């Protein structure tokens, strides 16, 4: 089947319309995200009104802004009015002031109020991602009456599968699943079906924590309450998936020494790609001067035993890899809640022993490989260094993310590249110190 870009390039409008009618919204959104601003707007205008909204909500905020900037006033107003409030709030978070003002000005009073309420929560909080459009049930209703409420108000809600149950003051009492209502006797009481003390989050809690809580507890939707336990919304599973994907994408980027791209890779310019990477590369290059300084410090030892230089790449590479492995494991464990900052001492002890064991295994290989190229004395230096450097690198790699978390720094920032650079310099100190002690140079 011919792809959309080829159809547009051939000016095959009928073929492009047929393609857009037969493809699911997420596929269309992916194709639009690959295009430049002009092409994306032209393609978007080919969609009918209902399908356009479905595709629009699949796009990232940056791509949504480009679409909005190219739409006329009426199309603009229709699109933003029909968006879910939580999707609209996330888009406005990234939007320039001009676009944000135009969006808010085009909304009805009700939609503007909901959007403003979501924007009032801290950035990155679950309040920014929840939907305020919920169907809440009073705890004294019968099943028959509860289903009537769902039919009456469900069309305006983003989800009806999870139904929060509240008291007269809108304080959360629990939840009931729609399935339970449908399968229960009409005269049964909702209070008898309520799951009390369900997983929930405060509106000011980090969205990532709430999303991971949903994954751990296997719930479709998570009730969100304010400081007084009053229901303010639901975090739905699709929004939770987006939060986790964004967090994981950010972690992967920073673990590799770059800033998150925040848009489709194929639509990003070479300049934008370079900009996300150059700052970290400069910082790591400056940090790498430590390695040069250490090498100069032990220049006499290198001149006296030139064979030592042969194993420098092997040792700093092994140390860096060992530290990167530990750092990656620690960042992941922190992200999913397997490790807390209070576990710092336990992690130090665990990673130190792991590094020692790795070092002993590698030192056996290093001893024989080293003796093949140089004498047993230099090979022994390499073997001892491998044990110490692996223990040190694993300990540093495993603990730096926890220390960063304790200092309220993103653990991914001090992960693999930073750990590798630090271990390179300190690994050389370990190597040349071992050489002085063993060889007497």
Layout of secondary structure:
Elements: H1 4-9, H2 13-22, H3 25-34, H4 37-45, H5 49-58, H6 61-69, H7 73-82, H8 85-94, H9 97-105, H10 109-119, E1 137-138, H11 143-153, E2 162-166, E3 172-177, H12 178-183, E4 201-202, H13 207-217, E5 221-225, E6 231-236, H14 237-255, H15 270-297, H16 299-304, H17 312-335, H18 344-373, H19 376-406, H20 416-439
Parallel strand pairs: 1-2, 4-5
Antiparallel strand pairs: 2-3, 5-6
Q: Could you explain how this protein is built, in words?
A:
The protein is mostly helical and 441 residues long. The protein contains 20 helices and six strands. The strands form two sheets. Strands 1-2-3 form a three-stranded mixed sheet. Helix 11 (143-153) links the parallel strand 1 (137-138) and strand 2 (162-166). Helix 13 crosses helix 14 (237-255). The chain is globular. The model has no long low-confidence stretch (mean pLDDT 84).
Q: Identify the overall geometry.
A: globular
Tell me what portion of residues adopts beta-strand conformation: 5-15%
Largest sheet: 3 strands, mixed
Please give the share of residues in helix.
Answer: 55-70%
Neighbour order of strands in the largest sheet: 1-2-3
Mean of pLDDT: 84
Quaternary class: single chain
Distance N terminus to C terminus?
Answer: 71 Å
Q: Uncertain runs with pLDDT below 50, 5 residues or more?
A: none
The helix/strand series, from N terminus to C terminus, equals HHHHHHHHHHEHEEHEHEEHHHHHHH
How many helices? The count is 20
The secondary-structure class comes to: mainly alpha
Integer-rounded radius of gyration:
29 Å
E-strand count: 6
